Protein 1
Amino acid sequence: MVFNSITQMRRMPIFSVLFLVIFLICGIFGSSLAPLDPTDGDLSRSLIPPFQDRNYPLGTDHLGRDILSRIICGARISMIVCIMVIFFAGSIGTVLALLSGYIGGKVDIIIMRIVDTMLSIPYMMIAIALAAILRPSLFNIIILLSILGWTGYARVIRGEVLRIKDSDFVKLAKIDGCSKTRILIHHIFPNIVNTLVILATLQVGAVIIIESSLSFLGLGVPPPAPSWGGMLADSRSYISNWWLSTFPGLTIMATVLSCNLLGEWLRLQMDPQFRQK
Amino acid sequence: MSGIILEVKNLKKYFPVLKGLVFMKQIGLIKAVDDISFTINRGETFGLVGESGCGKTTTAKLILLMEKITCGEIVFDGKKIDQQSDVDLIEYKNSVKAVFQDPYSSLSPRMRVGGIIAEPMVVSKTFSHKEIRERVSTLLDLVGLHPDSNNLYPHEFSGGQRQRIAVARALALNPKLIILDEPVSALDISIRAQIINLLRDLQNKLGVTYLLIAHDLAVVKHMSKKIGVMYLGKLVEVAESKRLYRNPLHPYTQALLSAALPSHPDIRQEEIILSGEVPSPLNPPLGCRFHTRCFNAEAVCSEEEPILKEVEENHQVACHLIKI
Ligand SMILES: Nc1ncnc2c1ncn2[C@@H]1O[C@H](COP(=O)(O)OP(=O)(O)OP(=O)(O)O)[C@@H](O)[C@H]1O
Ligand SMILES: [Mg+2]
């Protein structure tokens, strides 16, 4: 449906797609793809610079672990966190925004005050506070980021719902006897999907960065499990050994960038008005 | 079958003006529609004209039950419409449909044309899939669109074509009355005549009744049997279309008519320019609402409110200066 012409394919950000495919493959098959065991350390081969030893193409870290293998396996954590957080935060945010915008009244006031309250506290601060209370684990990170992430969806999508609710096609649907549920599902929801996709792709970037930041602060997924943020954290004391921080950093950057570019392309594809051009 | 299909009796809609955040206090009333009565005959077109803000759309919304009626009655096909009882309403809602002004906002951008037209039938649950599909192509044909249009999205159509889709949807359940709220105002001048002709053809074919709302008389002229002129929530003149054009009695109607383009360029007509602004419906002038702008107002006009009375057959005016 989306890929129905050559022109559209041509505009597809091919590098982003390629990179994200690699990211997903690494995320799913990471441990069997990695050339070496990402947790297997040996101090005798610590801090080997990249491009010098054929066994360690991107070098080794301070414990002698292979950086390439750790990056490949680290993709899994980022991927799981992203998918789960986008799913939970997106669902919670969308449902609450639909209720808030469509029902209005007290429901709207209550939901939006909660959103305002959460948005008024710096994101990282709540994250750090909650992460400190909850035991650091993959599950807790997902819960935490979902609790934090839904407000963005709720705020933006509520605005869209309010706009769409007022349009004539919704009024006509009411005249024609459509139920509230039908209007929400058939008239309002399809018209916010665009926004939802954009928000979700933007959130991929945000989630990866926050997850990395939490790991960087030691509040993320606990070691020795390889995670990109954790790798950055470890590299703090080894600034002169640039490869420890550069490779995970570049990976994070490339992933976030790819998601945003792909999201932008998808947004255009999903908009019927742009599909033709 | 002729006779009255819709009768509106003393219809009023007052919007409260609220102030304050938590404890909303009512500080006034907008009298958007203030005591209007008219009847529409079956199979005919009733034109409702008036300046922007005079309450035409509000009247339409009241008839469509989109707003709660403050006061007054709607009698449809001999039955009084009760906004509370759900049972009778379904039939009423299926018989009264609407086409709105903006063809861009009245079609859901994410729904295919087929789905848009079919929706009233889908919701009414009395049609099978096959019937719906057949009816959609009949309707597309009826409004002059290609049958393949049903798989396309609204953005692939021009404004005029979109309005045709909107009309097709309105016709889906074979309604008795269609409310056309400025159906051509948003369209290109060159397209207007096409849509007006389409609507007229459909009326001839299907015998459907129209309530045609417009802010200039030119559009209404060619279609309406009867015309009601509104000013600030009140009907000031109701007459048969021909009579109204030949012999406009209310000064406001005269001004409206003189502002419309003459039907022939050689015809010279004096244009009556009204002074002043339309007063706010929040506190309309006492007496005749039009007296602040009327060119031959007298003392009585600012004191007493004129009522709509019949001055000749099928011609009602609300003006003190018209003596029978
Ligand atoms: N929901 C509402 N709440 C408060 N006031 C309203 C509301 N809807 C309409 N009004 C007021 O009622 C008056 C009549 O509005 P209405 O939309 O019926 O005018 P109209 O004749 O359709 O004008 P137009 O030609 O611009 O469409 C206006 O003064 C408007 O401000
Ligand atoms: Mg209007």
Note: The mean pLDDT of chain B is 88.
Protein 2
Amino acid sequence: MPEQIEKEPTEPQETVQIDVISAARMEEMTSMEKIHFILDGVREGKVVILESGLSPEEESKLIEVTMTEISPDGFSGIDIETHPRPAAKPNFINKLFGEEEKKLTVIGPANQIQTLHKDSELISALVSTK
Amino acid sequence: MGIIGKAKTRISDSVNALIGDDGTARIGIYGPPNAGKTTLANRIARDWTGEAMGAESQIPHETRRAHRKEDITIERDGNSVTLDIVDTPGVTTKVDYDEFTEFGMDKDDAVERSREATEGVAEAMHWLKEDIDGVIYVLDSSLDPFTQVNTMLTGIIESRDLPILIIANKVDLDDANPGRIDQAFPQHETMPLSGLEGENMDEMYSRIAAKFG
Ligand SMILES: Nc1nc2c(ncn2[C@@H]2O[C@H](COP(=O)(O)OP(=O)(O)OP(=O)(O)O)[C@@H](O)[C@H]2O)c(=O)[nH]1
Ligand SMILES: [Mg+2]
């Protein structure tokens, strides 16, 4: 009879929470709600993954708001990667349908993300606990 | 200004006075921290007005407010183009205090520099939204251009339909790789340059005149 696998006791500071937000959920939110949703999560030490990313307008606002929320002993900012990399050569389909391609976006706390690496097929995050 | 005074000013100045501020394209110099934006802005300002714009430093986030130099008239091939040049703080999504203390800054100064830097970035994003007519995007060509900040910022600039010239800066460095920047932004005009040594500046002025004139 197989032994029951004991889960390692987890203390809060040893865990990293990952929230994956569906495109449908994102669509219900206004731009400012999205930005605060992301930043609230990341400030708590979560890694937030968006099934559909942000518009350029929202990214611009995200940079702005992130920078105003950084503080010396608290929040040190975000690391962010988007997948896929926006088409290097805008192709016919992109042109036809505008910029509405779905892009997966990974956002995490800068002080906990040791490396956030991306190539054309993978985003790899090395996240440390606080 | 009286008629006599006006006659004494250069033609481009009086044309400018007639057109007023609205007729002068406002060109923002954007890019990540430490890319050489201020060094380049100073060289442009010195070449055409004789005065520099701001302080340059090896420590990131030297520029923490947007600085504007008005009415820089660049003369190219018999034509002249008058621009306002705005040097902006390097854009990033994070601040590393330890980096400043590693440069020998004490904690208070590091905290103060960080606070100003974060406000500066927010301000630079604001300028981009409302007050900028074209962008000179500066990158250190010895570094990987595929960063999210570069992707996001160029995406934001594209979405606002602003003309953009990408500078592969610091080509004087041994490990400079301007070709990589060209590959990273195939949809944009890129060109190699050394703002520090003044390499390829004439070519840049021609491109600025063509693109923003
Ligand atoms: N080798 C080399 N160094 C350069 C060049 N341009 C600038 N630098 C150096 O890079 C460092 C940063 O230059 P700045 O002009 O202050 O950079 P910046 O982009 O304005 O930086 P922030 O204001 O912090 O965003 C300084 O030590 C400059 O001397 C260049 O063309 N070649
Ligand atoms: Mg500067």
Note: Confidence is low (pLDDT under 50) at residues 1-21 of chain B.
